[in-house]
Amino acid sequence: MLTALEKLVRIESPTEDLAACREVMDCASQIAHELLGTPAQIQEINGRPVFWWGSHTPDVIVLAHLDTVWPKGSFQPLWNVTGETATGPGIFDMKAGFIQALYAMVGIQGAVALVATSDEETGSATSKDFIKEISSRAKAVLILEASLNGKVKTGRKGTAMYQISIHGKASHAGLEPEKGINATVEMAHAILKVSSLENIDLGTTVVPTMLRAGNTTNTVPDLATLDIDVRSFSISELNRVDEQIRSLVSVNPLTRYEITGGFNRPPLETTSTMALYERAEKVAKTLGMSPLGHASVGGASDGNFAAATGVQVLDGLGAVGDGAHAAHEWIDITTLESRSAFLHALIEDILND
Fold first, then answer.
1. 9 and 147, same domain (yes or no)
2. End-to-end CA distance of the chain
3. What confidence tens digit (pLDDT) does each residue in 61-78 have?
4. Phi, psi dihedrals of residue 132, rounded to the nearest 5°
5. Residue 167: which domain range?
6. Are residues 346 and 245 in the same domain?
7. Are 71 and 149 in the same domain?
8. Which of 26, 77, 82, 258 would you call most buried, defined as having the most Cβ atoms within 10 angstroms of its Cβ?
């Protein structure tokens, strides 16, 4: 398993590099061929590669992704094993989870498919409709995103992304500032309004992120833009924030607001996950494992899209480790076999209904 994982990690596959994503998919298909006797199909979905191994009409979908957030050369060393720990770009999120899933397919008989996309890290823009389509026909979708200290994930926040552009009027900042309409000043008001929309008690976050304004240091800015990251466990909260952002009113009536964006992923709610979680705990017990435990987290995944179709979902079945998207990204290599064996047993249990 470690040898196969090293092959995948050494092929750096940032989402934006389509050629690199195709290369890692080809490598994954070769590993599948060596391990399972047949290669995967590499499908083209809206111009991007998708790995598919198994049934064409699956009752159980094991869902992963093989793209990473790391630009080529940005994570060094590219591969390192020290004691019980392995590091590398995307090893925790989520190439180790994919390898665990691939090895879990050994000996499986039944309607199951292992699917891996290549644009999850940037919001699954090209694959989300595909994920919804295949999930709507399945009985269960198992997500191989990384675990939370070994715990599976039974809840995820839904996400929305917005951009506010404020249009003003340029003028010389020293000679005649009064003839300008300052987009930066107006954006300061907008930032305070947007920040006030959070609800800490309900776990709703509304975070202004990227801010850009002005052209030169001696010109009244005629344009300011702001990106906003919104997350909540509740669809009603996402709707509330959406309505408030779209109804922003300018303080300076001479400025003009342009608001784009909206919902990205719906929440993954516990109503979609707890039945599979309880089954998973029973399976773990039969294998002599300690209780898995479960948690709700702020990050979103393709499990959010799958759950929106009404199918039962369980997330966080992947690697044990830490540091997703961080310079210390690592996995515990001693857990690869046991987590894979557990996934195999869980799939068998679902198929045997």
1. yes
2. 30
3. 999 999 999 999 999 999
4. -60, -40
5. 158-265
6. no
7. yes
8. 26
Tally the C-alpha atoms within 13 A of residue 106's C-alpha that lie toward its C-beta: 15
CB within 8 Å of 232: residues ≥ 6 apart: 157, 158, 199, 202, 203, 204, 205, 238, 241, 267
Compute the 3-state secondary structure of the chain and give helix, strand, coil in percent, each to the nearest 5.
Answer: 35, 30, 35
- Name 228's bridge partners: 162, 208
Domain boundary among 207, 231, 265: 265
Question: What count of other Cβ atoms lies within 10 Å of the Cβ of residue 137?
Answer: 12
Q: Which segments of 225-292 does DSSP mark as H helices, in order?
A: 235-246, 274-286
Same structural domain, 8 and 112: yes
Cα–Cα distance measured from residue 310 to residue 324, given in angstroms and rounded to the nearest whole number = 28
Q: Which residues contact 103 (CB under 8 A, 6 or more apart)?
A: 1, 35, 336, 337, 340, 344
Residues 6+ away with beta carbon under 8 Å from 182: 168, 220, 221, 252
Looking at the 3D structure of the chain, how many domains does it have?
A: 2
Please tell me whether residue 146 adopts helix, strand or coil conformation.
Answer: coil
Put simply, whether the predicted model's pTM sits higher than 0.85 gets the answer: yes
Of 56, 14, 46, 53, which is closest to residue 30 (Cα–Cα)?
53
d(CA 352, CA 146): 26
Residue type, 249: V
CA dist 334 and 290 (Å) reads: 15
User: Do residues 282 and 300 share a domain?
Assistant: yes
DSSP secondary structure string for all residues of 12-59: --BTT-HHHHHHHHHHHHHHHHHHHSSPPEEEEETTEEEEEEE-SS-S
Give tens-digit pLDDT for 230-282: 999 989 999 999 999 999 999 999 999 999 999 999 999 999 999 999 999 99
